[in-house]
Amino acid sequence: MPSDAAILSGLAAAAVVSSLFVRWRNSRSLPVPPGPKPLPFVGNIRDLDPRELWVSSAKWAQQYGDIVYTHLFGKGIIFLNSIEVVNDLMDKRAALYSDKPNLIMVNELVGAGNMVVFTNYGDRARRQRRLMSHTLSAHHVPRQYEAVELEARGMIGRFIEGGDAFHHLRRYSVGVILRIVYGIEMRDDDGSLRFLQVEEETADALSNEIMAGGGVWAVDMMPWLRHLPSWLPGAGFKRKAAEWKKGFDELREGPWEALKANISAGKAPPSFCYELLTQPGKTITEQDQIDIKDTANSMYSASMDTSLTIMSHFLLAMMDHPEVVKKAQAELDSLLGPGPGRMPTLLDKPKLPYVTAVFEETLRYAVPVPLALPHCLLEDDEYNGMHLPKGSIIFPNIWNLVRDERVYPDAHTFDPERFVEKGDGTYSTKQRDPRQYVFGFGRRRCPGSHLGEASVWFLVASMLATLDIKKPLDENGNVIEPHIEFTNSIFRTPSEFKVSVTPRPKAKTALQNSAPVKVASV
Questions:
Q1: Which residues of this UniProt protein bind heme (predicted)?
Q2: Does the residue 14 lie in any domain?
Q3: pLDDT in tens, 370-421
Q4: pLDDT at position 428 over 60
Q5: Is residue 176 part of a domain?
Q6: Helices assigned H by DSSP within 321-432
Q7: Which of 54, 151, 156, 236 could disulfide-link 399, Cβ–Cβ 3.0 to 4.6 Å?
Q8: Is residue 38 part of a domain?
Q9: 403: nearest Cα among 395, 391, 413, 411
Q10: Residue 208 falls within a domain, yes or no?
């Protein structure tokens, strides 16, 4: 006669099997979420316009609901359009929603699969994120304040001298990460500006070609296409990929080889790579070197477009809202001295609540990556009576989250006051914090969010302290209004526009007399 333990084990097994059967049966009978009507076989190829897909997703949400289902050649593409749905799926069910789709075009043919943003959620992704924590965790980021402030001071100096504002911003964004990751300081006279050029070229290819329309190519739906000869008609995607791969290879190899040369010459300054490669008492294996190299490339490749997008919107907002500039400069002058008396530092942040509110509203208003980079559903899932098929590509629509009128009243207006603490207990700052959304979700949240926040906040504070930002005038004294277009498929980067950036009275003196802060880990 079976024992009680055996009976209980049998009942438990039967319950599990029954549960799985019911789930399987329900998944077969439950409908997928609603969405625009697809064409036979090819699916929603007409609907997935690569330009401002987040806007299309938001419009679909008004018609179909917070979860919208589309497909390409039978591959599910699902858009999540509300804070509640994103929290329920991306955070509470992170184990199911933290993978990345196996996009053959970007991962294999272009060769970007080593970047953590595209890596499947497995050992390699975990190793990269573990290495990143040595530099990018909240505990370690203060060690990077000096590098951030050095690059920002160089950028302010270039603004004072004149020149192209957007070039200055791009150089700052890439310069910060090159200095921190590889110990490389970009100079005008040693060829290191080539790193900036390669970053610009590969970022443009990734945003406007490779990942356009969600980054899904026919070869991703029909993997056998990768075996077609490149010369064959219809295999133009392989010829394009081969050209793009050259840029991504240089992006990965260029700064790494420069770092190794500096180490060999005994002149490598402290950096993320140097510290990991020269750990006392540790033998660095070939796999260690690959992991460090790939992790460094992941950090470097993500450096420019997010910051450039945020700061472009910052310039636009300051041009449109001189009252915000005036109020922020008054707060800065009260702390630093008028004109300013000195440069701000990152340690000044707690004493500058209005400047921080300007930063937070810029982050929300700019929403640099409005449609989060794709995730992949690991298993069939059910939600609110809907079937979400295994393998579907998942896009949280961050644009719609930070334009939610329930959370951000008058959401299409730039208003830093929404982030100024009132002290009356009427709302929770955390619930309104745009950093909950713009840096990603769940286990794939951007590991560089703390450094990104520090570098952009300091740029906002430094520019407001030292520069006047206004709409330019033509030769007749008439205001030139900015003409803006959005053509980037990943980043909500406005087209370049004319802006007047001039130094405040004591900016040059403050820059010359201020030293960057040095902070150990906290």
A1: 446
A2: no
A3: 999 889 999 999 999 999 999 999 999 999 999 998 889 999 999 999 998 7
A4: no
A5: yes
A6: 322-336, 353-366, 398-401, 429-432
A7: 54
A8: no
A9: 411
A10: yes
